[in-house]
Task: structure prediction
Amino acid sequence: MLFDRLAAGDSLSAMCREPGTPSKRAVLSWVATKPEFRRVYDIARQCGRETIGEDVLEIADRAGQRGGLPIPLARRLIDAKKWHFARMTPKRRGPRPVS
Result:
């Protein structure tokens, strides 16, 4: 369940606040100490990043169209998802582009 939700792009912090789920500290401890858990966790996180990216593209494509969100609302939602995506992306994955 934890890995499925991470793969869907859900927040670890939000999940860990729910009753019956392990604490965020426990999950991160398992990531640090259990190689198999870390492997599956990393795969789920990567899937979550891809899911968020797909969500952003879908929102952008449909913004302003019939059945889509109004453009100002779509823009706010995209900004929030981009912020979440940036927080999910580990700094160790590579250097930031220089502007």
